[in-house]
Design a protein that fits this description.
The structure holds 2 protein chains of 2 kinds. Chain A folds into 2 domains: about 80 residues, Orthogonal Bundle (Rna Polymerase Sigma Factor, Chain: A), CATH 1.10.1740; about 100 residues, Arc Repressor Mutant, subunit A, CATH 1.10.10. Chain A has 11 helices and no strands. In chain B, a hairpin with a 2-residue loop joins β6 and β7. The chains are: A mainly alpha, B alpha+beta.
């Protein structure tokens, strides 16, 4: 197994940061994220024998994502039922259409902390799409594989997620908070 | 939220093919409002990419991974040996003889096959550029009942306009990245059971190849938050998709409505408790011919 181990390490180690980052954003806790990644790595190793090529990153991230959802499902069942409410959120977003005044749409120069908070506040389906796209810079196709939804759904989630982020970071949103 | 945001996002994400990207950039050049939205999206992206925290794996995690390797590898090997002794080696994993575990590569390939095998299709409005180069598409949709409140007659016209708009969105979104067929078959006896196994109603599925409208396949889609079925037809160089969904049979609903939504011809028909929505950038006569085949009006 020496060979398989080396191959596993070579395939997975370079993506350990990506794995941890995804888990960290999904479960929103540093300690829990470590547990999730550890669990995912065990699963990944167990299923690694047949992996003989291709990009290991989406493969690994799909396992991490499933481990994170399993973790969330066992603790906060409300969070993963998001799909049922996705359409309701659409209605909310429709009401919250961008104002016609283009100036008010401008993204404020936001601090790291504010941006992190805005991403963390996103519903999980939007959050994972935004994290995979903006932080991991994965293609729509890879994101669709990892999150197990059609590409069209990835596109609309990403777009809605960005819409929510833009709204959260708009100047008047900051004034309201102040 | 509207389709323009999806296009602008896809442009920023470099997910459009060259022709679609060019077509969108021409539109942006002509519409300052679009340019502003693109600028906003780009600023948002730069803020996120520049500022959001990308959490690095803690050293402890890395150390744990390295420490776990030998033990896990042994356990893994043991598990395989046990499984193979018990069940015999499965064919197809000759190189490592790993019989007990799923093949991740096969998993990826299986999931990626539909998407990966097909090239991206151009945006529908890109057809204005290349004309015959691009397939035009008709879509007829079926959605599960109840979401939009069709029973309220006075709001019907508005609601049906919203439906048409949503059908066009679903149609164009599906075309944007990939040709959206989940079950590719010209055999109605394959497509129909596939759909009926996944929907709580059974849409009519007929191949009209003799009349020039060949069934290409079908997919599920989401309209008004409900799972719908979309049938995809091909007519010459044109691709046609058709959405169908059940509706409240007691609702007041126009037998037929025709409109143009963002350059697409849309024909909506209600027949036998099903609402059909045909969406196309092909010419209205060709669209109507298919509509007459799929959902003929009661009295012609």
């Amino acid at each position: 197994m020496e060979d398989g181990q080396g191959r596993f390490a070579a395939s997975v180690l370079p993506h350990l940061d990506a794995a941890y980052n995804l888990a960290r954003w999904l479960v929103r806790d540093a300690h829990d994220a470590q547990d999730v990644v550890q669990d995912a790595l065990v699963r990944a190793l167990r299923h690694f024998d047949g992996f003989r090529g291709g990009d290991p990153r989406p493969w690994l991230l799909a396992i991490v994502r499933n481990a994170a959802f399993a973790w969330l499902g066992s603790r906060r069942s409300g969070e993963v039922d998001f799909a049922d409410h996705e359409h309701e959120l659409d209605a909310v977003l429709a009401l919250d259409a961008p104002p016609s005044d283009p100036e008010s749409l401008a993204i404020r120069r936001a601090e790291r902390q504010e941006i992190d908070a805005a991403i963390a506040a996103l519903p999980i389906a939007f959050r994972e799409a935004v994290v995979l796209r903006e932080l991991e810079e994965l293609s729509y196709r890879d994101i669709a594989r990892i999150t197990d939804v059609p590409i069209g759904t990835v596109m609309s989630r990403l777009s809605r997620g960005r819409h929510l982020l833009a709204a959260a970071l708009r100047p008047e949103a900051a004034r309201n908070l102040a | 939220m509207n389709d323009d945001d999806l296009w602008l996002d896809a442009l920023l994400d470099d997910e459009l093919d060259a022709a679609a990207s060019l077509a969108l950039q021409r539109r942006i050049a002509a519409e300052p409002a679009l340019q502003r939205r693109l600028d906003d999206r780009r600023a948002l992206r730069e803020a996120i990419r520049g500022q959001a925290t990308r959490h690095a794996a803690p050293d402890a995690l890395r150390a744990n991974l390295l420490a776990m390797l030998p033990a896990q590898a042994d356990a893994s090997a043991h598990a395989h040996a046990t499984a193979e002794a018990g069940a015999g080696a499965r064919p197809g994993n000759a190189a490592t003889g790993a019989g007990a575990v799923a093949d991740p590569r096969a998993w990826l390939e299986r999931r990626g096959a539909r998407a990966g095998a097909r090239r991206r299709m151009a945006l529908p409005w890109a057809t204005g550029l290349g004309g015959a180069l691009f397939a035009s598409v008709l879509t007829l949709a079926i959605v599960a009942p109840g979401t939009l409140g069709w029973h309220r007659g006075e709001a019907m016209a508005t609601l049906q306009t919203a439906e048409a708009s949503e059908a066009v969105s679903a149609h164009t979104r599906a075309l944007l990245v990939d040709h959206p067929i989940e079950v590719a078959s010209s055999d109605q006896h394959t497509v129909r059971p596939w759909l009926s196994a996944r929907l709580n109603f059974v849409p009519p599925v007929t191949d009209f190849a003799p009349q020039g409208y060949a069934l290409v396949g079908a997919r599920r889609d989401v309209l008004s938050g409900e799972t719908a079925a979309a049938l995809v037809y091909r007519h010459g160089a044109h691709v046609i998709s058709v959405f169908v969904r059940p509706v409240d049979p007691t609702a007041t609903r126009a037998a037929e409505a025709t409109r143009v939504v963002r350059g697409f011809n849309v024909i909506e028909r209600t027949r036998g408790g099903l609402a059909f929505c045909f969406v196309s950038d092909a010419n209205p006569h060709e669209l109507r011919t298919l509509a007459d085949l799929v959902a003929p009006l009661a009295d012609g």
